[in-house]
Amino acid sequence: MPPRSGHSRRPMIVLLLGLVAWAAGLWSPLCSAMVYIDITAPHLRKIPTAVPFFKNLGPHDGDNAFVGTLSDLLAQTLAFTGFFEILDREAFLEDPQLA
Fold this sequence. Notes:
By secondary structure, the chain is mainly alpha-helical.
């Protein structure tokens, strides 16, 4: 009997991965969670939120000041709502620009 090549196993692997993906799709509604922010509560616990500088993914290395301005604007807007506590960017464990 000749040895089996990896080419003949490919349809079986594709079928197995398809079944796993299908099963995960069936279970996903059962494993979902809803997050509610009760804005009428008298004592609201602020949600810690990290807002890093946006990463420039465009084809040109343009002005990075605009990227900083946008992320600062987002952080200020979230802080203004009173529901979020913006984390210090120096406390990040990883540099978002390198990730």
